[in-house]
Amino acid sequence: MIDRQTRQTSRMASSPPVALGRERFFRAFAYARVFVAPVVAVIGALAATFGPTWRVVTLAVAIAVIAAVSIYEAHYYRRHGRFRFGERANLLVLIVGQLAAVTATGGLSSPIVPGMAVFGVVLGIFASGSLHLWVPLLIQGPWIFGIAAVHAYGLLPEFQPPFMEGLMDAGGRGLGPWVMASVLSLLLILAPRMGRVIRALLLDAHQDLLTSRDRELRSYGMQQRELEMLTSQLAHDLKNPLTSLVGVVRLLERETTGRASEHVQILGEEVGRMRTVVRELLDFTRPVVPLECRQVDFAAVVSSVAALHEGLAQERDVRVECVTADDLFASADERKVRNVLVNVLQNALDASPPGGRVVVSATRGANAVEVSVRDQGEGIDEQVVKRIFEAGVTTKSEGSGLGLTISRALMAQHDGTIDFLPGPGGTVVRLRFPVRRRTKSAPGFA
Whole-angstrom Cα distance, residue 88 to residue 216? Predict the structure, then answer.
């Protein structure tokens, strides 16, 4: 199911609007035929009860072919996201089957005849190339006048079922069949042209919508860039004063005691949190700098990051365990790998209860180095997991919601992935760094 949706999404992203419109029509068309076939079958069965063998055989073959192709194409489209026989083949099968069904149910007096005009309009709207021109001239037109001759000269016995007699005289030599054939032929020639006019109107309306959408997207893009510039400038202007505040707070910590010292410590914690938010805002609004890759020993990096957080883990009464394998070398930007690991490990420590355990493991998978961070917290709600990488989404009361957004961008630079695997016994965050990485420019955070 996922693979089929992925194929359809990929195809939609690379297809022009007209092609997508035709494809949506034929998708509906493939399923509609499955439901229309029983209606034709009922009319055919009614007509077959009043006629010779040729009528029964013609109806049986026409309905069987249309039903078989319709069911097969609908099933094939569900599996592969496209039609097996293509647009023209499907249309031609329907045309030939329609003509056969009309012939067997009374010719020009058949109740299915009006459907030919409706199909002509649809043919003009959705058919590609010159199909809408030569089908009425080379297939439908000659067939109609052939049927008129059958009506006029009585070439087939019991051509009209008894309940349909009256419109045409199967044994007469009047002008009625020829007049009817001429009018119907003209209608079938004009119907596709009417469909072409409707097609042009639809395309013009569609183009107007696209133009309006593009204009709104450009306006939105300009506003977003201006907002990013303003946010970046604001974060940059706040960075230096906050650095100064950190220095002042450290001086006050040395010079104060008692209750005042506790207040200064709280002040220091809040200033530190403000610096973290400002740093994340700067990282979020400025482009991700290109990678500086070299062979990185992931075992050493993981052990180093785990050791860096031992103090914080002890404060929270959480044990950090590090499990690594041998030969965990891969091409990566070590500084950015550390940034991602630090962010993920801090989240794991924040989620772990006192007395809990966080396990950081590094192994070699199929063509990749995999790093997993497992905590023993309460887990993350499924609805939050779906939006966990969106900017501003966080489960922390004091979090900015930017850390995982930045981490995902850094992993994308490495052609890697970051996955959340929530469970009843905690959450596992899995990082996957490909051993052989494609050369790639820095992505944005969109």
Answer: 38
